[in-house]
Write a structure and sequence with these properties.
CATH superfamily of the largest domain: Transferase(Phosphotransferase) domain 1
CATH topology of the largest domain: Transferase(Phosphotransferase), domain 1
CATH class of the largest domain: Mainly Alpha
Number of strands: 12
Helix content: 25-40%
Shape: globular
Distance between the termini: 52 Å
Number of domains: 3
Radius of gyration: 22 Å
Strand order of the largest sheet: 1-2-3-5-4
Largest sheet: 5 strands, antiparallel
Oligomer: single chain
Order of helices and strands: EEEHEEHHEEHHHHHEEEEEH
Length: about 350
């Protein structure tokens, strides 16, 4: 990695995060790059900024070792009194935060990006590095759709609780961290598990059904409070629950163990969710000749119903596939939907 970013020109802003802003840049050596500008907080003391800058610069030297197809490559770094600039690969596909905001990703999509992320995470861990901040916004897609881990090493143990809570990702902070224990490979596994859950849920469902107080994880048994979309297969739930075990010894012990488990998960059927609102959830699945549709109507806290049918893509008749017998309670609807999707 270069000690100084070579003849770097900043262009339009790509995004803004807790630690600073990201710009599109042009580098005389590497061409089009992304540039993360980490600015000094207005409330930071001289000593705090000095220590933070030292931590970032030290970590940047470690990044030169993280040369892997699933890790965003850092090309160089430069600093002045009030900011640090990282020059790194520009991933044209953007971050998974974009897809997360659009809705639930299919299990096929999630397994693919999950495998990519775990291969990159395994490479980082093998070099003695931790990520500490795995979330959809820190997973980027290149022009061919390969997922890469980015923004690693920017969050230290000292910053983690305050940063994660302020950024809205308190549930990505492992149980033991809330108990004042240090981060580890297994705390990265926890945040990866929460990332999988978010991607499977989509932002709308996550906010409606799982948005919780930022520090709820520290109370324990957080995984038992998660509300799953009914179509998520049981094997997926078991794997993610293991990643979110309060006891680090009960989780996958490293990224390779998690990778082996994820690789065995089913990728069919591929349900999409074109509609998730407080009043209605809609699933769709396409085959060669028909579209299967499932709708869950949420009339009130205790008034729910659902129905499923298929429609021809061309000529033909619609067919009823199932449904509740009138309005029933939420738990019963969920049980019936889970049974339908498991067929």
């Amino acid at each position: 990695m270069n000690a100084v970013v070579s003849k770097l020109k900043l262009g339009k802003m790509l995004g803004k995060g807790y630690f600073g802003e990201v710009f599109l840049g042009e580098d005389s050596v590497h061409g089009q790059v992304a540039v993360k500008v980490l600015g000094r907080s207005a409330v930071a003391t001289e000593e705090e900024w000095k220590n933070l800058k030292h931590a970032f610069l030290t970590e940047a030297q470690h990044l030169s070792k993280a040369n892997h197809r699933n890790v965003v490559r850092v090309h160089g770094i430069e600093e002045d009194n009030d900011c640090i600039r990282f020059s790194m690969d520009y991933c044209k596909g953007g971050s998974l935060q974009i897809l997360h905001e659009q809705g639930s990703m299919t299990i096929n999509q999630v397994r693919k990006v999950g495998i990519d992320v775990l291969m990159g995470l395994s490479a980082l861990h093998a070099r003695g590095m931790l990520h500490r901040d795995i979330k959809p916004g820190n997973i980027l897609l290149n022009e061919t759709g390969v997922a890469l881990l980015g923004d690693f090493g920017l969050v230290t143990d000292d910053l983690l609780l305050g940063y994660g809570s302020a950024a809205g990702y308190g549930d990505h902070i492992a149980y033991e961290i809330w108990q004042s224990k240090p981060t580890s490979v297994k705390s990265d596994i926890w945040s990866f598990g929460m990332t999988l859950f978010r991607l499977l849920s989509g932002e709308a469902w996550y906010i409606l059904e799982n948005d919780s107080p930022y520090d709820l994880v520290k109370e324990g048994k957080y995984v038992e409070q998660l509300n799953w979309l009914p179509h998520i297969p049981k094997p997926w739930r078991r794997v993610i629950r293991k990643m979110l075990n309060d006891d680090p010894a009960g989780r996958y012990q490293n990224a390779n163990e998690a990778l082996n488990a994820l690789s065995l998960l089913p990728i069919k059927p591929n349900w999409t969710l074109p509609l998730v609102t407080p009043d209605q959830v809609r699933w769709e699945k396409l085959s060669a000749k028909r579209r299967v549709i499932v709708e869950w109507y949420r009339h009130g806290e205790r008034k729910h119903e659902w129905k499923a049918w298929s429609e021809p893509l061309g000529e033909g008749r619609s067919m009823t596939l199932g449904g509740s017998e009138g309005v029933i309670r939420r738990r019963l609807v969920i049980n019936q939907l889970e049974a339908f999707f498991a067929q």
